[in-house]
Structure formats: C-alpha cells, structure tokens
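Shipment paperwork, digital attachment
Item: protein structure file
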Amino acid sequence: MRKFFLISGLLSVAGVSFATNGDNLIGVSPASRGMGGIGVGMPVGPTDTIFRNPAWMSYYKGFNLSFGGILFMPHVKGKSNVTPMGPMNPPAEATSDAKVFVVPEVGIVHQINDKLTFGIGAFGVSGMGVDYRNKDPRLANMHTTLQFMRVIPALAYKVNDAISLSGALHLAYGSLDMGANMCQPFTTNCWNAGGGQSQTYGIGAQVGIAYNMGDFVFAGLTYQSPVEMKYKRVFDSNGDGRFEDLKLTQPQEFAFGVGVKPMQNFKIGMDIRWINWKNAKGYKEFQWKDQWVIGIGGEYKPTEKLALRAGYNYGKSPIRGGAKNLMNANNIPNFVAPFSDFNVAYFNLIGFPAVAEQHITLGLGYEFTKTFSVDIAYKHAFEKTVTATDNMGFGFVVQGKNAQDALSLGLNWKF
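Attachment content:
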C-alpha cells in the first residue's frame, strides 16, 4: 500500500499552482470541468462520480474505465515593498515561473450486480504554489508547492429505481514545500527557512445519496470528512536551524445539487458546495475563510455521438485583503515563532495566492464507437487581485494576482 501511494504521489507531481476553489480543483473529469464542476446533483460521467458523489455510480451499467489529465496554465503575479528595514518603493512585482503543469486522473466504475456498484479512482484534487526564485528580494525568494492527491475506493447501493446510497474512503497523499527567505525586523539577520519537500499521508471518508426521478429530475447530497495531514520538518520560523512541522488539514465539505433533463439530448444542473477552511488546522491559522461555491452547467447533444458542454463556477476567495495588524501574534500549529496578521497575509498572497473566484468552462464529448469515447474541456479563471496593507500607516503593501487557463482530456471505455 505504501508503494501504491508513492506511485500516486509521483503521478500528482504536477499539482503545483492549480488552485481554483481555494486550493481545490473545480472538478476532476473533463465532463464535469466542461460543465462548471458539477456532479453532486446529477450524473455527468462515471469517473467524476467517484470523487464528487459516489452514489451516482449506480447510474452506470457494466464496466467503465477512464484515463486522462489536465494541462494547467496558471498566470500568477506577486507584488511587495516589504524589507526588514521598512517599506521600499516602488514595490517589486514579478510573475511566478510556475507556469505549466499536468495533473493526471484515472478511474474505474464496475457494476457488480443490480444493487451494488464499485468504483476506484486516483485524482490530483488540490494544490497550489509559486516560484519567485532569482526575483527581487522583496518577494523573499518564495518557492512553494502543495500537492494533494486522493485515492478513492467507493461502493454504491441502489435502494430502488429512484434512490442510491454510497460510502467511500479517501486515502490521501500530500507533499508540501515552503521555501522562503525570512528576516528579523530591523536587522540583517536573514535565513533560508524552507526545509524542502515533505510528504505525508492521511485518510478521510465520504457518504452520498442520489435521487433520480425517471431520468428527468435529479438531486444529490454528499459529505466529505476532513483529512488531517502533518508535514514534518518543513519550515524554520525563527532561524534557529531546526525545521518545524506543520499541521495542514484538508477541510470538510458538504454539497447539494439538483439537475433536470427535459429532453433526451439536453440536461442542466447546479451544485452548491460549502468548504470549511476556517476550521481546518493550518488554514484556520492562516486566516482562510469558508467558501460557498456554486457551479452551473449544461450539456446539449446535437447528434447521438456529439455532446457540447458549458458552465460557470464561482467561489469567493478564502484569502481576504485589507489593513492587517502588523504587531499581533498568531500561533501556527507546531511553529515556534508567531506570525502577525500582516505576516500571514504576506505568506498567503506571495506564497499561496489561492484567490481565483470566477470561472467559465466549455467542453465536448464524442462517442467514436459504442465502447470508446473522448471528452475534452477548457476552463478560464478570470484574474483576481487581492491586496493587503499594514494598519499602522507605515506603508507596507503586499499583493497577489491569479488567473488561469486549463485544458482537460479524458479517454473513456465501457464494456
């Protein structure tokens, strides 16, 4: 099992800088991503059901195999006038060198009998990071990565023609690097605080319910538990040469969705997801706010073989700007040195700028044969800028910008 996770971790190595809803992808399969990331309230494809709402696995007959990936292209910029001696203007601004990544996915859904369906999938689902090495020192030589992958075995039970129930385990692999030059205020005492890439594992669970009224009206509910992670020897917060651990829990989620299929060749759905960042260890201390994410998407089939898709996804940034306290002290789990509110904002906006809010999506699917089809999708996240200043009038400023483009491809077989 440990070797399996290591392989899965290698598969998700491209998880850097693909934050969308916080540090989560809007969806994992091209079918879902082409429809705004929906999949809780109605079925959009076998692979996506494993992750979004496993109860919908009962909707699919036979044996289904999907393999694909996401070509992710973030456009991240940071701005800062922060130095140990005080603000230095004009602020330095640079574009992160973390620009193109591949995020793979694979899933199997197998109908055991008329009542039971089993599925298993491996997905890169969360991540973010930047690379400001060899840029202006006011950007702290920041180079960060968070990679998070879930291997999900799931089982769905068909209660009757309308209702299905499901349960799943989330076997998680995570990798974190927090490279940065840290300095004590009003001194020249600086140090490289990064402890290098730290890998760890965790476990969570998911339950779901799906309702299908005559293949016309659909509804679904799902809950994902938190996944507690502890990254060891990842950061030296006080310059004593000892690297400290960081507890960083992927948050619990609750989601509800509805859908309607008024015609055989047209369907539309909407999902609403609550992501509990503010109570997740690590994210809470870095002052992330909860998100309410809404996804809306539709599919139209002009021919029996061709499916056209479009969608929209919105979630307010969990990272907020404004005037930040320069002198208070926030304890970060396992860190020796406390962080002020402004220090927290600096790390968020320069190191982990998960601020994208609005996404538009397009997609299509084509059935080449009765057993083989291809899905593709495009997503654009509009540029979002978040700026923080100090609350004492010293003139400190830090800013993060994030825009994204992504292409997805999925190859699907059914037997």
